[in-house]
Design brief:
mainly alpha; elongated
Length: 51
């Protein structure tokens, strides 16, 4: 942690969070798992953008 002290301090003091981005990533992975690779990339893209 001493080597990465600047990012640690920034993470604890700044009001920013990557939570919303992680939520989108989780949603995308969940949709892809539900499709089980059965559909095209186009359908996956539409489900992510519209869902």
């Amino acid at each position: 942690m001493e080597r990465d002290i600047d990012p640690v301090v920034a993470g604890l003091t700044l009001p920013y969070s990557n939570g919303p981005t992680e939520g989108v990533n989780t949603k995308t992975k969940r949709i892809a798992r539900q499709m089980h690779g059965r559909a095209s990339f186009t359908l996956l893209r539409h489900r992510i953008l519209l869902g």
